[in-house]
């Protein structure tokens, strides 16, 4: 089993690979799901040693939290559970976020709203504490929702024992510094993969300085790094991949050429592209946490194999050189 990695300065240690449950929320973004299969997938993840389960109220407008709650019943003490706050549809705020399946969603990072969000999540998830609570999106106007007030809410919840560690998602360097003025920020959650690496330049230095961990989502670059797509693969109108720079012809070709060359590693390590890429991603930054999504047991079984892939140093160096060509 892979070594355990600490979440910031929280004292909480987990294997580097966790499970994301955005897709399990379903809705128009992901399509309909078989909830019973989703429950089995989460339970299979826990059996395979994936201990960090991440969800959010916005995923399927509470649906993901509801499914996660069913899956972890009787298993709560075996896992590290994270959810999020600060996206609202119970009430309007001056900061409109977006419309989700016909429901208008707003950002609200006020103390009152964060505490209400957390209490709702505790009920939905069927637990009396959350290990890591993230602010999901940051405000566009800090005068409206000062980080001092947001952090006051989070520190209050921590003192009450309702949360164990504080996280923030979709942040800037300035946000991280300000959070840390008012308490310990333990982890940020950001999009990161071996082909989308701006986090290394923009956020890694400040995180190292202040003892903040990074949790990467979309490590397989929306499927591009799984080896399942070709230059001829197209996506329907509205598919998020149509706007992803990595899927544009020039970069896509470079990525696919690299994957073709990496077939030799699949044989050497007896693994899939997903396993190889997740294992390599874990070596890109010290102490990196990675989220892999799954909706079916076979998907989480494949993800989990990455925990057992031990890459040789020379291969890590060569693969890093290969992907430098993408920058």
UniProtKB/TrEMBL annotation:
Query: Entry's InterPro entries?
Result: AKR_Detox_Biosynth (IPR050523), NAD(P)_OxRdtase_dom_sf (IPR036812), NADP_OxRdtase_dom (IPR023210)
What is a single molecular function from GO for this protein?
oxidoreductase activity
Its GO CC terms?
cytosol
Q: Name one Pfam family in it.
A: Aldo_ket_red
Q: Domain named NADP-dependent oxidoreductase: which ranges?
A: 17-321
Alphabetic keyword roster: Oxidoreductase
Q: Where are the transmembrane segments?
A: none
Q: What is this protein called?
A: Aldo/keto reductase
């Amino acid at each position: 089993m892979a070594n355990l990695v600490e979440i910031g300065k929280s004292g909480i240690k987990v294997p580097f690979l966790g499970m994301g449950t955005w897709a399990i929320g379903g809705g128009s973004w992901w399509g309909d799901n078989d909830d019973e299969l989703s429950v089995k997938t989460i339970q299979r993840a826990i059996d395979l040693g994936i201990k960090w389960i991440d969800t959010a109220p916005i995923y399927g407008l509470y649906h993901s939290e509801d499914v996660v709650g069913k899956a972890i019943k009787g298993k709560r003490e075996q896992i590290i559970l994270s959810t999020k706050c600060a996206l609202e549809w119970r009430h309007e705020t001056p900061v409109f976020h977006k419309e989700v399946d016909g429901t208008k969603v707003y950002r609200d990072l006020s103390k009152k709203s964060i505490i209400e969000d957390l209490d709702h999540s505790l009920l939905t998830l069927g637990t009396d504490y959350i290990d890591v609570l993230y602010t999901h999106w940051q405000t566009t106007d800090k005068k409206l929702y000062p980080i001092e007030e947001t952090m006051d809410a989070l520190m209050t919840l921590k003192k009450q024992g309702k949360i164990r560690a504080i996280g923030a998602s979709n942040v800037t360097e300035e946000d991280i510094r300000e959070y840390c003025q008012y308490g310990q920020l333990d982890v940020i959650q950001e999009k990161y993969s071996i082909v989308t690496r701006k986090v290394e330049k923009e956020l890694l230095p400040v995180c190292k300085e202040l003892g903040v961990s990074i949790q990467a989502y979309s490590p397989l670059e929306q499927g591009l790094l799984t080896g399942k797509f070709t230059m001829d693969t197209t996506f329907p109108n509205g598919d998020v991949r149509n706007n992803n720079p990595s899927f544009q012809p020039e970069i896509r070709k470079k990525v696919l050429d690299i994957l073709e060359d990496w077939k030799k590693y699949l044989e050497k390590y007896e693994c899939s592209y997903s396993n190889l890429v997740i294992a390599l991603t874990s070596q890109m930054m010290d102490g990196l946490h990675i989220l892999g999504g799954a909706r079916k047991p076979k998907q989480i079984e494949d993800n989990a194999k990455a925990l057992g892939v031990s890459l040789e140093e020379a291969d890590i160096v060569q693969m890093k050189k290969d992907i430098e060509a993408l920058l």
